[in-house]
Amino acid sequence: MEGREIGWAMVEGIIAGLKPSVKEEAIDFDKIFVRYNVLEEEKKLGLKPEELVKDIMPKDEPWKTIAYAVFKGDAKTALEETKKALEKFPPKEIVDKGLAPGMHAVSKLYDDGIYYLPQVMLSADAMSAAVQFIEQKVGAGKVEKKGKVVMHVAEGDIHDLGKNLAKVFLVADGWEVIDLGRDVPVDEVVKAVEKHKPVMVTGTALMTTTMTAFPKIAKKLIEKGIKIPFICGGGAVNEDFVNTFELGVIAKKAHQAPKFAEAAKKGISWSDLRAKWHEIAPA
Predict the structure, then answer these.
(1) What three-state secondary structure class fits 249?
(2) Three-state DSSP class for residue 269
(3) In the chain, what are the domains?
(4) Can you give the pLDDT at residue 11?
(5) 176 vs 9 pLDDT, higher one
(6) Does pTM top 0.70 for this prediction?
(7) Element (H, E) at 178
């Protein structure tokens, strides 16, 4: 036992020696947030990431500061500025004018291949911290949402990275996400759709053996008279397969999710969404 204690003391000492002696206040987000590929893009274009999105970012305060905090993944500033703004402005205005534009800017650079998953997740964390504070202060039910979306990973499948990323884009765009998680039975998905009445349902599958759950879900929904778009994606899923069953619409990229949801909310049918997805939600 004594030997183990000495061993752990040595390990802890080594770990402590590896920790950077930089105070949190001294962190420069502009230097640590940008990946190498972004720096290379700057050299090529002669522009910094924030300059690429300046036309879609707020010009007035406090929205500008809040939006850029989200854009840079600076959760501390996003939360602090949101707290201040909440003393003067309603929650919806803070989300619509400050938080959402920052996340939309990240989405644009992600679409353009300039930002990647790490930037998206950092910005999503910053926005989530601010939104959670707002919900705690005013009550989650009082923060207006665009509508509901039910999401799940197919039964037998535990690969949820794609679902989680699509969820980030939906939440950032103002949607309430009913996340059923991974390895979700067919009947559980159908019950959730019946209960929550979403504008659409999504399914993700990485394996060909698990994506076979999607036609079963679609069939049961139709039997119950529910004909909302069923957005299907994941490594195993292709357009030919999705087109073999009713309600199915292919999704190739996570950032398409809010565009599909907006179309569904407007009343665009699943069949029109399937036929025109290239125009409605280009990958």
Answers:
(1) strand
(2) coil
(3) 28-139 (1.10.1240.10), 148-280 (3.40.50.280)
(4) 43
(5) 176
(6) no
(7) strand 176-179
Single-letter amino acid code for the residue at 275: A
Q: What helix, strand, coil percent values describe the chain, rounded to 5?
A: 60, 10, 30
What pLDDT, in 10s, does the model give residues 78-94? 999 999 999 999 888 89
Q: Is-contact 68 130, C-beta < 8 A?
A: no
The CA distance from 91 to 138, in Å, is 8
* DSSP per residue, 91-142: HHHHIIIIIHHHHHHHHHHHHTTSS-HHHHHHHHHHHHHHHHHHHHHH-GGG
Residue range 222-234: average pLDDT?
97
Residue 75 and residue 129 in contact, taking contact as beta carbons nearer than 8 Å: yes
Tokens found for residue 22: 């930089």
Long-range CB pairs of 78-81 (<8 Å, 24+ gap) are 78/102, 78/126, 78/127, 78/129, 78/130, 79/126, 79/129, 79/130, 79/133
Query: Of residues 276 and 45, which shows the higher confidence score?
Result: 276
